[in-house]
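Protocol step 4 of 6.
Sequence for Sodium/calcium exchanger membrane region domain-containing protein (Emiliania huxleyi) entered exactly as in the expression construct, tag removed. Do not edit the line below.
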Amino acid sequence: MADDHSLCSRDLIEAAADSCAFAKQHCASDAAGLFGSYVPLYYCQLGASPAAFAPLCALLLLLTICCLGSTADLFFIPQLTLLSELLVLPPDVAGITLLAFGNGAPDVFTAVAVANRADFPLLLSDLLGGSVFITTVVLGAVAWTASLLPSAARRPRSWSVEPFTFWRDLCAFSLALLAILSAAARGSIGLRSSLLFLLLYLGYIACVVGLPRLGWAREAMLPAEAEAGGLLRAAYAALWVLEYPLTLLRYLSIPGADCGWDGARRRLTLASLPFAALLLHVPPFHAALVLAGFAATIAWLDLLAKEAVAIVESIGKISGISTSILGLTVIAVGNSVGDFVADTTAARRADARMAASAAFGSPLLMLMLGTALPCLLFTALNGRPIDTPISAHCRVAAAFLLCALASHAVAFPIPAFGGAYSVPRAYSFYLFSLYAAFLTISVLLEAGALPKGWVCSLGGGSGCLT
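Step 5 output, structure tokens:
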């Protein structure tokens, strides 16, 4: 007899005499979030009305993705910063471990939430889609922004990247990507492969720490404030209003790590009895409270990531759109907006060198940890490897990511492109065009205009979702 997961499909639900009852019976645990499954909500409370479901899901997805980012920015990164100070970690070690994990927390926790549902195509599409977006759109925006600066601010060392840093990150990124794709092509990723990915990450850290004179002490890419225009400021204000109830709950449940206990913070903290001791001053056991807040922040990130994945899976179930294309676009871009804002802001402040370096380092760490940790947790909790079919969309994303990395390997060192490991403004148009081509092919694949079977035959491997 087929299980409920195979019965929860749009065709079977709409073919049933009572779609609402069928959805309640077979979809209660599918695409379930904090408030249950969104599939019965669509067929019962909303009367299978796309006009009502689409704006509701769009608003909820926007809210959860924004809350994921703001939870990492406002709570997780300050906690990790304080922990790095308490552990007396060197800046480069803290930057590529704790702070990098904080910057990539939305993607990593989304990947963990997806792995718990054994949806590897969605996991991989989120990571690959985010990597393609950062290495094309974000890096292109950095190059474009740097080219618009006054010549006095556009110092060569401010824009060009360090050659050793460039090749180290590019080679490590390519090695990690090929290792993940090779392991997934075998059909499953087990404990040994997951540990190998972690060893690759540790090897990268050892390379950064062990070669300080050749490398570069990575600046902590903390989310920078956007120097936004009026329209963008209005959008931020609207999002702040939407997030406010959750923001209040987060401040009530997570003690602050920045020691910025002003009057408003203390009055807010008074409502949370476990942390009421902070009403008068920052106590000597503040570090212990930060550790408690760290656990609370992990719980918030996990909750929000699971909700975002549930919404995306519900959209896929109801609309028939594959979760791979949704992961490549909606989740990947949403989780990478913070990188876009931080890197372009750094470029506007005449520090395009740091921004360009972060555009390589951020997706590298995201790809390594975002694959290793979810697969390791899945195998440890379930006692079996996670099945790893590589969807046609993921194969396209991997091809474009390799194309982007190969383009950088050619463009940055060539003297005709500016030399000194820099690129001109024209290269930004090429990167934007590359991402536009990636989106176009992905949409054509989803629409059936391009045969997914043909794409799968090109990539090889033991499994491919069409």
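Step 6, annotate. The domain at 31-459 is CATH 1.20.1420.30 (A middle domain of Talin 1).
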